[in-house]
Every structure is written in C-alpha cells, then in structure tokens.
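Sample 3 of the quickstart, ligand 4'-deoxy-4'-aminopyridoxal-5'-phosphate:
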Amino acid sequence: TTDWSIEATAKRRDTYYAASQKKFVPFAAPMVFKRGSMQYLWDPEGRKYIDLLGMNVCISVGHSHPRVVAAAMAQAQELTHCTTMFYHPTPAHLAEELAATMPKGHDWVVHFTNSGAEAIDLAMTMARTFTGNLDLLALRTAYHGPTAAAQSVTGISSWRHPGMPGNVAFVAEPNQYRGIFGENAGAAPYLDEIERVIATSTTGQLAGILVESVQGYGGVIEMPPGYMSGAAERVRAAGGLYIADEVQSGFGRTGDHMWGFQADNLVPDIVVMAKGIGNGFPLGAVVARKEIAAPMAEKFMFHTYGANPTNCAAGRAVLQVIREENTQENAREVGAALLGHLHDLKAKYPVIGDVRGRGLMLAIEMVKDRKTKEPDRDVTAAVFEECRKQGLILSKSGAYQSCLRMVPPMCLTREDVVDVAEGLERAFSAL
Ligand code: PMP
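Result:
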C-alpha cells in the first residue's frame, strides 16, 4: 500500500532525490495530488483544486480525459512499446494527422521524440544540418528545455547551467510591457535589433532562430503583430530557418488558431511541439518541411521511445478531442471571459502592472510601482500562496518571478472562471 502522507514522501524525496530534482518546489509547502479529472485535482484528503497550471501545460484536454486514457490503455494492453524500426500504424496515423494541421501548400514530415527538449535539440541539429551553418538566434526570457542544447537557447538565467554549447546569440524579447524599447513599441525596433545582432554578434550565416510563439516561462510574452514573420524574413536573408516552439502555445491554446505562429500568417520551417500533444503522456515532435528534414537521412537519429505507440495513441485521441469537443473555441471564449476578470482586478489593485495573453494562456504581472514597473516577486509569491488556499493552482513565472501564469486544461468552463475570479479577488484583498 502507498503512504500518501506528505511527510513520508518528503522524507524519501529528501533522501533519494538528487538536488537538481528535489529543489524544484515553487510553493511555500509541499503539495500532493492523488486524483485528477478534467480541469480539477484532488489531494488525498479529498480537497478539490482548479488546475490553472495544467500540470505544467501538459494537460491540454483534461486530467485523465476518458477518451485519451482509453486509447492509451487499449494500446498498452495490446503492445506497449514498439520502436520505430518496426512499422506500427498508430504513430504513422498521428504523423499524418499532425501534418494536416500545418499550413497548406507544403509537404510536412514528423519526427517523434519523448519530450520538448529532445525535440528542440533535434530541431537545432536539423537546422544546422540543412543550412550548413552553426549560428542560432534565440530570444531573451525564452525557455526551451533542460538538455544542454535546449539550455543553450534558453534566455532565463535561473534555468541556465554551466557547460552549455555555444553558437547562440540572444536578441531582445519583444515584450510590449517592459521590453527594452518601451511600452507598446510594436515589432519594428525588435526587428531592427535582430538585424543588428546578426551583423554584430554572429558570423552573418545563420542556422536559424527559435521563437516561442507566446513565451511561457517568460511570463506569457506575446509576439507583437509582424514580429514572427519579420524575424523569419531577416533570418532567412542570412541563410537561416525559422523554428517555432509551440510546446506551450500550440494545440489551440491561444484560442484563435491551432498554432501560435498562425497569428502572424507565417509558414515556419520547423515546428516543435510537446506537452499538450500527449495530455500527460510523454510525447514530443518535430514537424518540418520535407526538404528541410531530408539531409538528416545521412545521419538518422534514433529516439528509443520516439513514436511509441501507447503515447501516440494518446496523441491521436488528443487531436480527436480537440476536433470534436470544441476545445479551441472554448479556449477562446472562456479565455476571453477570464481575461475580462483579470482586467477588472487590475483596475482595482495597483499592484497589478499588466494583464495579458490570449485564449487560455494568460498572465498578470505584479509591480511595486506602476510607473517604475519594478517587479514585485514577494507579492507574486504571496498571491500565489493565497490562491492555493482558495483552491487555485497557478504558476509563478517570468524572468523576475513576478508573473502569475494561467494555462489550464482547455476544458475550463465559464462557471470555473467565476470561481477563479472570486478566488483571485479574495487573494488580492487578503494582502
Ligand atoms: N519549450 C517550451 C516553450 C517549454 O515550455 C518547455 C517545457 N516547459 C520545453 C520546450 C521543454 O519541454 P520538456 O520539458 O518536455 O523537455
């Protein structure tokens, strides 16, 4: 039998988890969840929470969604694993279905991985192989994952460790609230900045640029209109490719589109996805234009669990749910309702400096002073803890940990939004 007490698990974690893993507990006290269903979580005592974090954006269509669980379990019972050297139909179907979600007029191909970071790694290698160039551009406040290669393009210092490979130059994130060119500066100065960085900090010959269509850990930083397409144009002029990281922003989360890059009418060269694709099952993918993936035939890459049929069965069910249960539309409508409440809160509480996002990818940013915009990490942590007492699981994010990010399962309802708004109101008024 399993001992569900926090004390028992804490003791084992303290003793047997490596420091690198055990320390990532961004709460005042540890939490344990025993059960999840759709947008809700329950602790062992039966207390219910609304999961506005989506268990780190992984839960796209709902915790333990019955259709996803049934599909994965049926596959696991028949054949749990089958490496890609054997021809299993399930991953092949999922590849076809993912390709169909990409912009028309191109041939798209898929390489399955087990995680987002592996997919980022592969996308970087693919871009370097195709172009023959090494230099990549990445954005400040970007997060792309924990592998060495993914860290080399991650622009938040608390996530960066020693010994990262090089050949990466960082450009300023086009943050419309506190970016280096001031409030609502639009895309233009940031595109000039890309040109400057290419000219001054690279060889001038690029492998590509990586852009989260909406930065997640960065604190829900949306790309202003024209930024993604303008960045692609400038990077392509230097011989490089445009790599869209859709790990957080994909699968309809932004409400208006299946993929975040579609907000800018852009055709990327490579798209990286993970998290929401598996609704909790470990699955990632690189989707690339066929000609761009082609040169890697000479030195193929083999991820042992990549294209695992159990995870891919879950992935197929996720796509089916998104198509049949109005997931994207719900993200748009319910997200708009939640955003409205966040704006009401901002009108009432001066500590809220900014409210932003689209669909069910939203954030509020806390400041000590609206004029100086000095980030308020302490208030953010306090609101976060108050919300937790109110039964709301949020996420602290941003380079200064001054943002509360909301990326719930996309089945969140309007009734939940009322509960969330009331919980936030109580949390802010308690301070
Ligand atoms: N890209 C983005 C935008 C992410 O948010 C993450 C994970 N938080 C990753 C890549 C890496 O994904 P994984 O944790 O599955 O390696």
